[in-house]
Each structure stands twice: as structure tokens, then as C-alpha cells.
From TrEMBL:
Name of the protein this chain belongs to: UDP-glucose 6-dehydrogenase
A Pfam family it matches: UDPG_MGDP_dh_N
InterPro entries named among the record's database cross-references: 6-PGluconate_DH-like_C_sf, NAD(P)-bd_dom_sf, UDP-Glc/GDP-Man, UDP-Glc/GDP-Man_DH_C, UDP-Glc/GDP-Man_DH_C_sf, UDP-Glc/GDP-Man_DH_dimer, UDP-Glc/GDP-Man_DH_N, UDPglc_DH_bac
Homology family: Belongs to the UDP-glucose/GDP-mannose dehydrogenase family.
UDP-glucose/GDP-mannose dehydrogenase C-terminal domain residues: 313-415
Catalytic reaction(s) noted: UDP-alpha-D-glucose + 2 NAD(+) + H2O = UDP-alpha-D-glucuronate + 2 NADH + 3 H(+)
EC number: 1.1.1.22
Pathway noted in the entry: Nucleotide-sugar biosynthesis; UDP-alpha-D-glucuronate biosynthesis; UDP-alpha-D-glucuronate from UDP-alpha-D-glucose: step 1/1
UniProt lineage: Bacteria, Bacillati, Bacillota, Bacilli, Bacillales
Length: 435
């Protein structure tokens, strides 16, 4: 099959590379010349496990190429994927500027009939709008149909998720387009859900909103467990063993961040608002998530009372481990709140420091190791469960800090590990341990 992918951001690049690995001929189009050149030389601008190897392999086998030229990129393509960004607009809804631009570019350069496939997360109804926009601007006498094929990729395991995901969702109101997409995806050997356009668009939002709800739910249970003397680890384990509930996404902590959950939960609320349908559950999911970031600082404040000029070591800044992504990272709010209380904040992250410098207050200092961050600190606060942070021996806190006082926002240690460590340990949804 001949395929074009518009946008070589995170989703577009992974999609293009993986489709070429199935044996399809793929041309990825991007306006960024430097990026295109880099990609044609086999260098990935993002780090994703396994991606660069597949990129090099498929370039070598001449099934994959990158271009800035729409005419060349779209020539003889049966399928054109739109995988451009849909950032959050001012009112919480998805901003479709890049999608609209891609539609106009397709309309100006398409020279044969094609199915336009949307990978980008777009509000329900957008695919119909895409069809209208392209058809209204078509330069050549060609016909198009549209389909939705949402992605469910996690950062850090996107290649794995593409080949080993739980399902592939394809939606179209055109039976032939559905059949074509089914053929394109057959090589992944995953269960395929075929549905109409609007349901496919909705599946993406509903899935992310449900996972976000699971996290806010477990955080609400954790806050209560802490107050009544239960242990959220045991509560989550006991709940998760019920297959109807499932054990994943029940890790209590300081809440979800990243490029998807916060944006998509707000976007679906905004979609509801547009059709006068309120979403009380999701409004509260967002609210609980925002509050969760304050709770850890409030607990710390209650314990230390006066934080002014106290050295607080912040360990982990990215929104989750194994990424340098700072988008909507809880560390942004937490460091802000600590600085408001006049604490001296010294942060450490294995890879996100450069990105963090762009979004955190310039009052934050950065350390080059955990040891340096916690040296002579009054308090340490863990915000991302990096392996390095989980493996940092507890006795090192005791040896290096002024007072071994640790607030763990990601429950990196079991309570048994903390016992007799000499560390006073506050975590999420579990009793305080005076080790
Ligand atoms: C998510 C979805 O998993 C993916 O299907 C979708 O396409 C994009 O959004 P991602 O943002 O990469 O992927 O990260 P994920 O691993 O899902 O974690 C999201 C956030 O939730 C992180 O901040 C993480 O720390 C938090 N989280 C996750 C919890 O707090 N508890 C959990 O149990 C799981």
C-alpha cells in the first residue's frame, strides 16, 4: 500500500515508521526542513525505545522516506494520514489550526483519489469537517473519503504499543475506506474495532478520560486511607484483583500529567459544554487531579511549618519516568508552591533538566545528582518514580540530609523498606513511618 503521513511529531513519526515496517511504502511530510534531513539520515528527533533501529532499517530498505514537498509526498498515495498536533486552545477545547492547514495542503496537492485518515486526537465531528474543508478546496478532480484511526500510544513505549497494543480502532462512514484500513492494519495482528466516524473519535476521548478517572479515583481513596489508617497499596491490590476493575492505573500519587490526559479530559468537558451536556464526573476528575498537587505541599508545610530558607530537594521533574517531557508535569505546580512558601528549591532529574529550565521559575536551582540535591537538605520530596530515585538507598538520605525527612509523591518505597532506615517517611495514602 502507498501511504503518506503528514506531521513527523511523536505520533506521526511512530505511525509512519511502524507502517513501513509492515511492508507499506510510506512518505512522511513535514514543513521542518532540518528535521526532514535528520530523519532521512536515520536520526530520530525523539527518543523512543526501538524507533531509531526501525527508522534506519526501513530507510535502508527504501520503504520509508521524508520530504517537505507535498506534491511528491502525496503522489500516488492511497492513504493520507493526518498526524499533526492538536494543542489545547484557550477555552480548553482542541486547537485545530494545524489540522486545518494540513487539509488545505492536501486539497492543493492531491492528484489521485485517497482515504484521509486522522490519527490526531480531534473533537467529535472533526472528521466530517476535514472532509468538507478538503472537498471545498480541492484543486484537482479527485474524490476523497475520511476515516478516524486514533492512537493509544504511551510515551516511552510507543513502538511496543503500536505492535502489541490491545486493539486498533478504525471508524468511517464509508465501507470501502474501512476495508482498506483493515487491510493496512492487518500486519499488526491485533483485534480491530470497526465503527462509524463519530464513535471512533469518541473512543479515544472516552478511553483517556476513563484512565484519568481511575487515577483520580485511586488518589481520592488514598487521601481517605491516609486519614483513617489504611494502606492504599493493599487497597489497590485487593481492588485490582477483581478483573472487572483491573490492576493497572491504580498507582496513587501526585496525579497525572503529560501531553494527553490533562488536555483530553478538558477537551471532552468542552465538547460536552458545546452541546449543553455537563460532565460532572470528569469535572471532578480534573479538580481532584489539580488538588492532589497541593496536598503533598500542604502536608509538608504542616510538618515543617516555616519553610522559609529551608532547602527542599525536589527529586524528579518530568511528568513520568523515562521521558524528558515536562508538559503538565506536577513538578511545575509543586515547585511553584514551595517557592511561594519561600523555600530554597534544589531540583534533580536524570534527563528533564534542560526542558525544566524553560518552564520552572528561574528561582529553582538544579543539582547534577541525587546525592548533591539532598546534601544538607531539610526536606526531600519525590515527584517522579525514576528507577535511579527508587534505587537510591534510604540510608543515604539519613547520611546526607540535615534531617532525614522524605515526602514521597510516587510511593517509591514499600513501608517495610523504610522501617529502621532512620528516615521519617511521608507518602501517599499510607501511614507515616518514623524509620
Ligand atoms: C497516555 C495514555 O496511556 C495513552 O494511551 C494515550 O494515547 C496518551 O496518554 P502517556 O501520557 O504517555 O499516555 O502516559 P501514561 O503512562 O498513561 O501516564 C500518564 C500520567 O498518569 C503520568 O503522569 C503518570 O504518572 C500518571 N499515572 C499513571 C498515575 O499517576 N497513576 C497510574 O496508576 C498511572
Amino acid at each position: 500500500m502507498n501511504i503518506a503521513v503528514i506531521g513527523t511529531g511523536y505520533v506521526g513519526l511512530v505511525t509512519g515508521v511502524c507502517l513501513s515496517d509492515l511492508g507499506h511504502n510510506v512518505t512522511c511530510i513535514d514543513i521542518d526542513e532540518k528535521k526532514v534531513e535528520k530523519l532521512n539520515n536515520g536520526k530520530s528527533p525523539i527518543y523512543e525505545e526501538g524507533l531509531e533501529e526501525l527508522l534506519e532499517k526501513n530507510l535502508r530498505q527504501e520503504r520509508l522516506t521524508f520530504t517537505t514537498d507535498y506534491t511528491r509526498g502525496l503522489a500516488q498515495k492511497q492513504l493520507v494520514y493526518i498526524a499533526v498536533g492538536t494543542p489545547q486552545g484557550d477555552d480548553g477545547s482542541a486547537d485545530l489550526t494545524y489540522v486545518n492547514a494540513a487539509c488545505r495542503d492536501i486539497a492543493s496537492h492531491l492528484e489521485n483519489d485517497a482515504v484521509i485518515v486522522t490519527k490526531s486526537t480531534v473533537p467529535v465531528g472533526t472528521n466530517e469537517h476535514i472532509k468538507e474543508t478538503i472537498e471545498a478546496n480541492l484543486v484537482n478532480d479527485v474524490s476523497i473519503s475520511v476515516a478516524s484511526n486514533p492512537e493509544f500510544l504511551r510515551q516511552g513505549s510507543a513502538v511496543h504499543d503500536t505492535f502489541r497494543g490491545d486493539r486498533i480502532v478504525i471508524g468511517s462512514n464509508d465501507e470501502e475506506a474501512l476495508e482498506l484500513l483493515e487491510k493496512v492494519n492487518a500486519g499488526f495482528r491485533l483485534p480491530i474495532v470497526k465503527t462509524d466516524l463519530r464513535s471512533a473519535e469518541m473512543i479515544k476521548y472516552a478511553s483517556n478520560a476513563f484512565l484519568a478517572t481511575k487515577i483520580s479515583f485511586i488518589n481520592e481513596m488514598a487521601n481517605l486511607s491516609e486519614k483513617i489508617g489504611a494502606n492504599i497499596d493493599h487497597v489497590a491490590k485487593g481492588m485490582g484483583m477483581d478483573k472487572r476493575i483491573g490492576e493497572s492505573f491504580l498507582n496513587a500519587g501526585i496525579g497525572f500529567g503529560g501531553s494527553c490526559f490533562p488536555k483530553d479530559t478538558r477537551a471532552i468537558i468542552s465538547i460536552g459544554r458545546n452541546v449543553e451536556n455537563d460532565m460532572p464526573i470528569l469535572e471532578n476528575v480534573v479538580d481532584v487531579n489539580e488538588r492532589q498537587r497541593s496536598i503533598i505541599v500542604d502536608k509538608l508545610h504542616k510538618r515543617v511549618t516555616d519553610l522559609s530558607n529551608k532547602k527542599v530537594a525536589v527529586l524528579g521533574l518530568s511528568f513520568k519516568p523515562n521521558t524528558d517531557d515536562m508538559r503538565e508535569a506536577p513538578s511545575i505546580d509543586v515547585t511553584e508552591k514551595l517557592l511561594d512558601k519561600n523555600a530554597e528549591v534544589v531540583a534533580y532529574d536524570p534527563v528533564a533538566t534542560e526542558n525544566a529550565k524553560e518552564v520552572l521559575s528561574n528561582k529553582v536551582h538544579y543539582a547534577t545528582s541525587i546525592e548533591k540535591a539532598v546534601q544538607d537538605a531539610d526536606v526531600a520530596i519525590i515527584l517522579t518514580e525514576w528507577k535511579e530515585i527508587k534505587n537510591f538507598p534510604l540510608h543515604e538520605y539519613k547520611a546526607r540530609m540535615k534531617e532525614a525527612l522524605v515526602f514521597d509523591g510516587r510511593n517509591c518505597f514499600t513501608l517495610d523498606q523504610v522501617k529502621n532506615s532512620g528516615v521519617e517517611y511521608h507518602s501517599i495514602g499510607r501511614p507515616v513511618i518514623y524509620g
